[in-house]
Amino acid sequence: MNNPLLRPYFEKLTERDKTALMQEMADRYGLQFKGLQRFCRWDRSCTTGVFEKGGREFVFVPGDTVTIGWERFETGLDEENLEELYDVFEEYEYKGTPEEFIGEDMAPVRQVTVAPMLAGRKLEEIGWEPVSFQDPRLLEHPDWLQAFQEHQRAGMRGLNLAGCARFHCTDGRWEAFLYHDVTYDELKELLNRQGFSLPTADEWAYLCGGGCRTLFPWGDGLKSGMHLYHFSEAADAGRPYDMEEPNFFGLSIAYDPYKQELVEADAAATCGGDGGCCICGGEGPLLGYLPCSPHRKPEIQEDDVLDNDFHFYRPIIRVWQ
User: Fold this and answer.
1) How do 269-271 and 260-263 pair as beta strands?
2) Alpha-carbon gap, residue 220 to 271, rounded angstroms
3) What is the pTM of this model?
4) How many whole angstroms separate alpha carbon 63 and alpha carbon 116?
5) Nearest-angstrom CA–CA distance, 12 and 148
6) Cα 13 to Cα 36: distance, rounded to the nearest angstrom
7) What does the pLDDT read at residue 1?
8) What is residue 163's predicted lDDT score, i.e. its pLDDT?
């Protein structure tokens, strides 16, 4: 029997049948079904259900069997991307080919079957607790408040006291946050109690790339004129960041190399970024964003304690028919 929760069959359902299926799913998993929405990006599209639970938005992502991992270009790099690579090759006296160089960081090619799931649309922060400016835990650190006040008077809109507190201005209103250490196992246990999980690395690759065979979901390199975090000009302020816009599943995913997305594994592991290492090392946009490729090997973290400034998570619910 054809499973309507798998992508080849889900895409053929009428909107009426999809709506009935989504409402049944909402009732089963305790979510509010907000309606169907069509997401189009990079020549692919999906009309799927949008849900809400506890202030989070989820989308239904149908399951599929796809090929992930990378070993060669499908269309090749343009001159601008190649020029960046060859500059690096010259600096490090690298004698290999672009495919060999990039392939060192890519996962092996393989076929995987991904179960249907409800996936959180946005990354979520770890270990930052919103608090009142009158919270006793904040008031007992007048040096933090003094630093914030000086920052505020200087006309700045945010201050991060690493490992302590954070202050941020949104729409003219300042908010305060306290930092808490969180371990990988503690995060997984918390999500489990809430009825959620982390995606595996294979599931993350599917959510990000949808089974694309190119280096990125849109092609083999970065496109000229893309609006990218950390590389765009000041004149682009206010313009949406290309990679942060919802993808063909409706997910905001792999758009900032500084943001590492935690995945399910035996030890703390991340996809979608390298904490900005390549960018801080002076690499250009292509190499800076290479860690955002859906095919890149997961990065195993040094220990179980998470870094609340660089580690983020996406809750999912695996769905069974």
Assistant:
1) antiparallel
2) 19
3) 0.91
4) 4
5) 55
6) 12
7) 59
8) 85
* Half-sphere exposure (Cβ direction) of 259: Cα atoms closer than 13 Å: 17
Parallel, antiparallel, or unpaired for β 64-68 and 158-161? unpaired
% helix / strand / coil in the chain, to the nearest 5?
Answer: 30, 25, 45
Tokens 């599943």 found at: 249
SS3 assignment, position 222? coil
Q: Could you tell me which residues come within 8 angstroms of residue 64 by beta carbon, excluding any fewer than 6 positions away?
A: 6, 7, 8, 113, 114, 206, 211
Rounded Cα distance between 152 and 135, Å, is: 19
Share the mean pLDDT of the chain. Answer: 93
- Give residue-wise pLDDT tens across range 11-59: 999 999 999 999 999 999 999 999 999 999 999 999 999 999 988 999 9
What is the distance between the terminal CA atoms of the chain, rounded to a whole angstrom? 12
Higher pLDDT: 103 or 308? It is 103
